[in-house]
Each structure stands twice: as C-alpha cells, then as structure tokens.
Amino acid sequence: MTIAALIDKQDTFEIVRDQIGAILALEVASQMALATAAVRDPDDWKLRVFSERSNPWEQFLNDQSDGSPIVNVWVDNSNFDPKVSTVVERQKSETVYNVDCYGYGQSADNPAGGHTPGDREAAFEAHRALRLVRNILMAAEYTYLGLRGVVFRRWTQAITVFQPQQDASQVQQIVGARLVFRVEFNEFSPQIPLETLELLSADVNRTEDGQLIAEADYDYTI
Amino acid sequence: MSLRQLAEADLGAVLEDGATGFGWPITVTSPAEMSALLTGFSDDISQIIDPDTGQIVSGRLASIALRISSLTAAGFELPQGIADAAQKPWLVTFDDINGNSFTFKVMQSNPDRALGIVTCILELYRP
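Predict the joint structure of the above. Result:
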C-alpha cells in the first residue's frame, strides 16, 4: 500500500524558515523608513537578507559598492520529542535555525588623524547586524513569529562570533556572527483517509414540553 | 663578492626590471606621509587553491615584494602593519594590468633579511 495523496505541501520547518527571512526583510525596510522619518541615516539600519546561501559574503569580495551587512537564514537541525508527539500524525519538533550575520570593513583614512582599521569596522558591522536581528526576532510583535497556532515558542539559544572560512590575509575584512534561533512547532505527516464505522447520536429533550436541549454526534472511525 | 651578496645584487635585475622583467611601479607612502615610486613585484589575485598549502582559499589576496636596499635608499624603514588607529598606516598604490589603480594598507610585513627582500601582505584601503 502506498500513500494515496500527492505530498504537495511545505513542512512547518520550511514555513518557519521563510517566515524568519520575511520578518527580517520586512522589519529592516520598516526600520529604514523609521530612521528616515527621524532624520537619521537609514543605511545604519540596512541589512541584506538571504536564505540558505552557502557563501553570501562573496558579494563583499569583488564589489565594495554596498558594504551593508549580509544576513543568511538557514536550517541547521531538528529534534523530535516523542513524549509530546504521536506515532501516527503529529510530531513536535524543536528546530534550530542559524541566522548568520556578516559584517564588512575596509580600512580608511581618518581626516582628523590616524586611520579606521578595517578589521575593527568589520566586527562592529557584524555586531550591529546581530543587534538588529536579535531585537527583531525577539520583539513582542513576533512572540510566535506571526504564526500563532503553529509556533509554540521561539528562543535565542546562543550567539557566537566567528571568522568566515577564508584566507586570513586577504584584502577584505569580514567578520561573521551567528545567532542560533530555536523554534518549536508541530510537523504533520500524510494520513489514511478515515472511514466511519459507526455513528452514535444523542439528543437531550425536556420532558415537560419535548424541547431539544442538546444533541451530539460521535463518529467512530478507523 | 659572496654568493649571498651576489643574490642581493641580482634582485636589481630580478625584482626591479620593469622593462623586460616582472618589475612593476609601486608607490610607497610611510606613516609620516613620505612617498616614493619604487619598482618591485605586485600581486592582486583571487584564487581557489592556495598553492602553498593545497587548501581552498576564497577571496582576494594582494601583496608586494620590494628590495630592502631600495627602500632604504629612498629614505624608508621597513614597512610594517600598523594596528594603532591613531596612526596612519603604511600605504602602497599600484595599477593592475588594465590600468586600474588600487590603494592598499600594509597588513603584514615579512622581511627576508638574508636576501634583502620584504614581502608585504596588503588590505584594501579607502584613501
């Protein structure tokens, strides 16, 4: 016996992955608009959001015209909890998403004296991106990531800063920061269409006038 | 002349021959903002495999190699990486083969005092 229906759906982990990216892109645009309204430089709130890219920071290597931080959302792993799941239909998943933030820095002349070191600027840019990402994803507006009824809980599990896998002595300075974001939700699997074996109906009537007070139907299925 | 002194003298032909060799004009600027046009080797490449280690490398690597005696003759000390943001860094400017000029900061200096050559690892710099 094979599965009767075409599996034509997104799993919840995919929906949540896309939702995290959409929230970040939407809120970055909103923050830039708010900054403009507040007569601040909107580029200080600019992030470029990607999903499931292996080396998005490659953009920094050959084109330095836009040095705004890059954010990449990708699925890392899922763990399923059998204690609060069923073997048939619903499995509770705790999925970890990595939200990697890459900051680019370029050494530059300081007209007031000295210079601005590119390695420090890259770290500061990565930290700025991390700050925006954490505040957006942990904002009260996104307690359930806009998917109430699907997402039970979202949580910043850890933050680590790292150097991307590149030669240490290359001309560009890039620093990465990873926000490990854990989201809990249910995953569902295809089911056998149920067939009714027996229908049990119950009516409750008032004796004096025969008025129907309550009625209930119970389907007994396989 | 010893073989070692001969090797240093040969740098003039090997490293600084811009007419028939690989010598390339490089402008060096010290933290005191003294500049001089020297001739040496310049590299600015993006590569996939590091030939030294065999490891995959992504990114852009730039370096120069200069004759130490030429630097000294021009009034320079050995270039070095400057970590202090309050100071100006050592800068080098050179064109690529298509005539596009790039300015770099010296990130790391690797002098070979035995043969009299210094190799500088570079980082992009916005003047």
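The two ends of chain A are 16 Å apart (CA to CA).
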